[in-house]
Structure formats: structure tokens, C-alpha cells
Amino acid sequence: MDRGWYLRCSVVVLATVLAALALWPSLQQWLPAPKLVQEWFPGRISPGLDIRGGLRLSYDVEVDEYIRDRRDRDADNLLRDLGVLLGVYDKDAAPEVGREQLQKVHEQVEVKNVGDRSVRVTFKDPSKAARFDRDWLNDHGLSELRIKSSRDGVFVLAMRDDQLDKLRATAVQQAVKTVSQRIDKLGLREASVVGQASNIVVELPGADQKTFDRIRSIISRTAKLEFKIVDDDTNFAGDFRDKMPKGIEYQTETVAAGESKPQVTVGYFVARGEDARAHLQKFVDTLPVPEDHQLLLGPIGESSQSGAKEEAWRTYYVFKISNVTGEDVQDANVAFDSQQGNRPIVTMQFNQTGARRFGDLTGRNVHRRMAIVLDDVVSSAPNIQERIGGGRGQITLGSFLDYNQLLAEAKDLVVVLRAGALPAPLRPGNEQLIGPTLGKDSVAQGTEGALVGIGLVLLFMAIYYEVAGLVADVMVLLNLLFILAIMAAFEATLTLPGIAAIALTVGMAVDANVLITERIREELAGGKSPRSAVDQGFGRAFWSVFDSQLTTFIAGVVLFQYGTGPIKGFAVMLMIGIVTSLFTGVFCSKVMMDWLVRGLRVERLRVG
Predict the structure, then answer these.
(1) Could you tell me if 44 and 73 lie in one domain?
(2) Mean pLDDT value across residues 23-39
(3) What residues have CB less than 8 Å from 162, skipping those under 6 apart?
(4) Which of 170, 207, 413, 463 lies at a 20 to 30 A Cα distance from 303?
């Protein structure tokens, strides 16, 4: 045996050992794997919904909301950069300017959102708009906006069409990534999250009703976290107290509002009862809130006449601008507030950028209230006593929930904060808990039938092609091992289309060996020695085998490109099977045949 054979044999042995180790954890139920093997090869094959049953969720990604949020951020950045253009402050100060400086910018220019995708910029003095053009927008990172029209210092900016298409695709991709991270943090490794057009499909084999309820809540939660300053200098609610409908009350509170005004009295609206939030929100939607402000709702816990806590909601008048968001959160954990009877809370650690922004935000607004806003709901509005450094913060949850509800809510909030906020809200499309398509008996019968079929193929090859048939049988089994090992390594889900693709691959693997064996038989019939016949047989049959596999691989690529769901799963398994079939049918079988004719030096090679 030459040195090249030993090298090729080493490759085959190493690949076989690694494949066996990768597949071992998937056989845990029948053959427990050592802890070391599970640590080094954590991937496992999971049965799909059509075999095992489970949870299937379909959500529509509200991409228009994502585009609108992106437009709002562009408008905010535009306003800050216009302050530099107008000479209100320097370029380096633009990202961290305060409300007072922005107010000076508002005195010279108005930036107003128009519809869902446009922004109108109005210069009070048209002569100051001379440098406001396309080049200026590009230089300030606003290239996704184009000047749609301009006249007498009034510009209408709109998002470019190609940018809109890109944003739609980005929203879906980010939603898939965020949902996948949330599910992974729950320890559900078998989940499948796939983006399709403007929606995502989540499949969780084996999930029960209890898991269904929790996962549905965690997946659909936007988890948009913002920190906004409460405007206590303006008694907005007091101007509309005469327009309150029945069921809504006007109340006042005395709060600190900065060093210039140690204490002020401001009003707010309150609604109580089962539908308090919806009733109050309906009223708030009718109020003319200024463009740079928001009137948000937050829960409060109040005791009823019976002494039990009842649901109640109130309003907060806040500045719309938010310099610190959930994107700045690096980590989150559940903690307990000893000052409130060990009440569960969520603590956060900001990243370096977030810590700096949070410190600047609190430093500029000492003695003011800061609203902690989660999904447009104010969870709390503590008073800032001093600049908060160190990049830490906390969220207090709904006060009318009991301890167990608070703890569960805190744990779920930690999951979504760690995974990040969704780029856009998800609208439930189709949610269902389904059973397996086949059932246990059918799966058992199908498995038995597949084993019988493979057994008959192996028996036929061994009888008809004798020694060459036994080599082909070993290659078929080796091919199955490699396919399943690759599935385990990528934590693939085994579905009915995947099983069909594996069955087809077995047939193609046998076909490759048949072509090679028939070619060897012809060489032997022509008087060649076994060694020469093997070399000539593999050499001349290679391109026939390769061409047949290549054409099938191309068909798999087309199915993957244009198919959806099960068709893509079938295509992926088919392409994997073709690669492993070429490796085992050509490379591995050549190593084994060389061992027979060169190592054992057989004088008569039995090929049927």
C-alpha cells in the first residue's frame, strides 16, 4: 500500500468517527452519550411538527410602523443637524443637545412629519436655506431622504423608493433574528423561525398549551424601551379638564421641576376599572398633542372600597425626544426591591455608549422626573435627584399585579430585553397548536417500512454484486451516517419531506455504486487485473456519476430558490445527500476497493 492510500484512509476514518460522535447525542434515548461528547457535540436532530406535533405561529411584521419610526428618527437627527447649519451650536455638540438649545432651533426652522414617510422643513428666514440641498443631506448621513419639492424656504423630504424596499427587508430580517434570540434564551433549541415576504413563521415541535401561552406573549412583545423627561413645566391636562368624558377624572400632584422651579403643581387624567386603559387611551387620542410631545399612559395601583387593589391608569406629559433606548441595554436581570417588600423589579446594565448617554440625560435634568417607557407605557417616573453614572437603571412593573404575576412578568421582560426589541410590532396571523400529521403508530409503521426497504436494497446488492455489493452496502450505511451527522451538527429538524429526500439519496448512492461496479465488471471481462480494473472502473465511471449527481443538485438549487416551507426542506436535504453520496460512492468506496485489491491482493475480485 502506498502512502497516498494511508492518507485517504485516515480521512475516511476521521470523518466516520466525527460523524458518529456528532450523531451520538441524538441517540440519547437509546444510547446515552457521555457528558464530554454532549459538550463537544451539542447539536441534535429534532422531529418536525408533521412527525411530533407542536406549536405553529405566523406573524405579520408591520413594516409600515418600522418605516414610520425610521422616518421619525431621521426627522429628529435632521433637526439636530439644522442647529449646526443655523449656527446655534457646534457639530460635536449636536448628538447631545438639550431641550433649551433645540428650542432655539425651533425658533428658526420647523421640522414636521407629513403622513407616514415624509418630512416638511420650513425655514422662518428663507435666506438661511441656501446650503440646504442634496449634498448637505448626504454629508449628514441622511442620504435615504430626498428633496421632493422646495419653494420659498419650505422643503418636503421623502424616503427614496429603493430605501423603502431595503427597510422592509431589514425589518423582517431583524424580526426573525430577534424572535430567534428570544426563543433561544428560553432554552427551546428545536425551534424554527423563518421569514417569508413580510411575515415570519415560528415552529416549535412538542410545545404544549402552557408553553404556547408564554411563548406567544414573549414573541409578540415589541419591548421598545425609552427614557423620556416628563414636562412638568406645562400643565397640559389642565387645559382640557372641561372636555373629560364620563369615567375619567382630573387630578393634580406637586412635583419638583428643576432648580429654577423647586415645586410645581401639574394635572393628569385618571381612569379606573376593568377597561380603564382603553377608555383613557380613547380620550387621549382626541387631544391635540404638540409635535414634540407625547401624552403616554402608565398603570397605578389604588385600593377600592373593599380594600383590594383595582386597575387604574394615568397620563404623563413627556417630551418626545429619547436619547437613551433599549438598544443601549447590555444586560438585564430580575432583582428585588427591599424598600417595597422585596417586590420583583428588573435591573439593567447599559453598554458604554448607553451609560454615557444615560449619565448626560440625568445630569441635564436633575430634579425633574424621568419616565421609563416600555412599549409606549410608562412603567414608572422617578425623580432624578442627581446625575446617575455607572450605566445602571431599573424598571418597576405594574403595581396592581400580585407577587407571582410580577415575578413572571419580570422574568419574561428580562428575556426580551436581553434579546433586544423588535424593529416593528408583530400582528398575529395564524396561531395554532397542532398534532402530528402521522401519529405514533403511523410513524412506527413508516420507520419499519423504511428499514425493510433499505434492508432489501442492501440484500439485493450483496447477492447480485457479491463482494462489490458488500462494499456498496457499507457505503450506503456510511452515507446515511454522514447525512444524519450533518443534520445533528446544524441542529436540523427532521420532517416528512426530509425523510423523502433521504430515501431518494439512498437510491442515488446505490446507483453511483452500480455504475462503478458495472464498469469494473467490464474491465475484468476484458482481461484486466483486479487492481487495474478498479483503477480504470473508478476513473471512467467518475464523470458519469458526477454528471448525474450534478444535474440533480441543480434541480435541488432551483427547488430551494423558488420553493417555500417543506419544498425548501426537501431541497436542502437532497443537496446534502448528493454531496455525501459523492464522497462515499467515489472517495470512500475507492479506498475500500484499493484495500481489497492492493492490501489483501485478491486474485479474483467477485463483482457478480
Answers:
(1) no
(2) 81
(3) none
(4) 413
